[in-house]
Amino acid sequence: MKFPLSIETVSVFAEGLDHSECIAVHPDGSVWAGGEAGQIYRISSDGKTVEEIASTGGFVQGVAFAPGARWLAACDPGNRCVWKVDPVNGKLEKFATGADGEQFNIPNYAAFDRAGNLYVSESGNFRQVNGKIFRFAPDGSGRIWHPGPFNFANGLAVSAGETHLYVACTWLPGVERIAIREDGTAGEREVVARFPKTCPDGLAFDREGNLYVSFYTPNAISRVTPAGEIQLVVEDWEAHTLSNPTNIAFGGEEFNQLFVANLGRWHISRVSLPARGLPLASHAAETSPESEIRN
Questions:
Q1: Into how many domains does the chain fold?
Q2: Please, which of 84, 216, 251, 253 could form a disulfide with 95 given CB 3.0 to 4.6 Å?
Q3: Cβ of 237: how many Cβ atoms within 10 Å?
């Protein structure tokens, strides 16, 4: 299979959601998403059943499962917090409202490492370069992990070897990465890729070290190879099947389906790929040796 893929490789997986921005896949195959009025949805693995299990009353952006999928982190800029959601009964508990004396403004995206530490992108103010990254221990204690400033920090992805945190910076526009030192502190920061005239939003790795990047605009998904080459994966110029695609996550029986939240519409898309996704901390699986993206 060659890139770019035909739009026919993209299908509507589930319908009836309220302009979802976020997506996460549970180890049981179910797909979880949020809504613009605070809804948290559980979608059956076949896409036929969409169930609202909770509502924050705010605006749910990034979601991520903790190791073992014990709980779901949900970023909510409407309530300026990260929620801890029980995936069994939908019970909501505020996990964090900020750290180091700083209140969240736009907590945008969440990503766990295998030890259960949670990285949260704080986008900052609209059209101001003041985004940063928070990090929280499993007990909820946190700190500003990297003060930035980032140009609207958005999607996050932890590399296979947990040596780097990748950050989609929407107004850069591009992707940066920050080294994760052995003691867990932030190290060197560098730009991985730039995408002129786009708005990068979501990130996800496959097992070969390719980094997939979804764009709120144009309606497309690209990937950055370990060698730093940028490849268009798929584009929907009609903005029908991919419509303001935001967050992305691998799932499916072979882990080769890329699920896509579409903020511009009411459905979740699914892209069939010739690659398998990198298991996240929630999937308790062996990960392949990391192939670093090089500039």
A1: 1
A2: 84
A3: 10
